Amino acid sequence: MAWDMLIAQSIRAASVRAHCQTGWINMKHHLQSLCIASVVILLLGATACSKSQPPEDVQSGKVNLPLHVHAAAGARLVTDDICDRYTQLTGVSVERNYASSGTLARQIAAGAQADLFVSANKQWIDFLNEKQLLDKTAIAVAAKNALVVIAPKDAQVAPLHFVADYDIGAGIDHIAVGDPAYVPVGKYTDQVFKNLSWKDKLDGKLILAKDVSSVLNYVALGECQLGVVYRSEALISDKVKIVADVPEALHAPIVFYVAAVKSASAANSVRRLYESFLNDGQAVFKKYGFSLP
């Protein structure tokens, strides 16, 4: 009997030792798995950190993405270029809205979501500033431009003379211009016509366009024989040609502005985008035919 009890105790002890060894092996495997997972997480984190860090307000989750830019139609290519680069560097997406500066300013004043405003003249910057909708510490001249007369690429056009007694309307049925009521290029064009006393000569011949891109399209499609646009706009189309440079003395300086719309929740991101237009963006403006301030 004593011998049987001793054998039973030995069997139980062996069973306990085997169970403990199995538990230790399982725990060892579990710890190894945790270590491997930790290394993978650290590697992924290091890879993410190797990219450009987004602005602080994005990292903290205090900004509602994407950002919104309202830009004059004449700055479309420049704005697309700068915003795309900004997104590549920061991971912050940027939605864009293009129209005439006056249309955009009225949209912002009416409550449209906007973080940055690119205007083709100071009038609409002042309009929003008076309504206290802009960050006064983030308003600057981004670039300058010039006014040119364009015609369809294959058209035969007589030389233009910018003097009061020149009959600009002779042999011309339609000239495309921006609507001076809210399109900056139209306002500059109107100044030229007034200074040369050409308004009466062009009575019934002017086709008013909603923005400078529309002026270009009227001429490119052959619907108008002439059009007045920014030099930068004329250079982007292979369907038109520049037939004359408008003397700068006949109109106010053509200046493009960039301004940050008040947006406390996205202050860091907006400021960084704003600075992109003034720093690396200057080379982009020049690439698309603008001159630097």
Report on this structure.
The chain is of the alpha/beta class and 293 residues long. It folds into 3 domains: 7-50; 56-144 and 255-287, D-Maltodextrin-Binding Protein, domain 2 (3-Layer(aba) Sandwich); 147-245, Periplasmic binding protein-like II (D-Maltodextrin-Binding Protein, domain 2, 3-Layer(aba) Sandwich). Helices cover 44% and strands 21% of the residues. The protein has helices at 2-49, 56-59, 76-90, 101-109, 122-130, 184-195, 212-220, 231-234, 267-278, 281-287; strands at 67-72, 94-99, 116-119, 134-145, 147-152, 175-178, 206-209, 226-230, 240-245, 254-261. The strands form 2 sheets. The protein has a 5-stranded mixed β-sheet, with helices on both faces. The longest helix is centred in the first third of the chain and has 48 residues, at 2-49. Mean pLDDT is 84; it is low at 1-52.
Strand order of the largest sheet: 2-1-3-10-4
Helix share, percent: 40-55%
Q: What share of residues are in beta strands? A: 15-25%
The major sheet is characterized as: 5 strands, mixed
Instruction: Tell me the domain tally.
Output: 3
Give a topology summary.
Layout: H1 2-49, H2 56-59, E1 67-72, H3 76-90, E2 94-99, H4 101-109, E3 116-119, H5 122-130, E4 134-145, E5 147-152, E6 175-178, H6 184-195, E7 206-209, H7 212-220, E8 226-230, H8 231-234, E9 240-245, E10 254-261, H9 267-278, H10 281-287
Parallel strand pairs: 1-2, 1-3, 6-7, 6-8
Antiparallel strand pairs: 3-10, 4-10, 5-8, 5-9
Helix pairs in contact: 4-5
What attributes characterize this protein structure?
5-stranded mixed β-sheet; alpha/beta; D-Maltodextrin-Binding Protein, domain 2; 293 residues; single chain; 3 domains; disordered N terminus
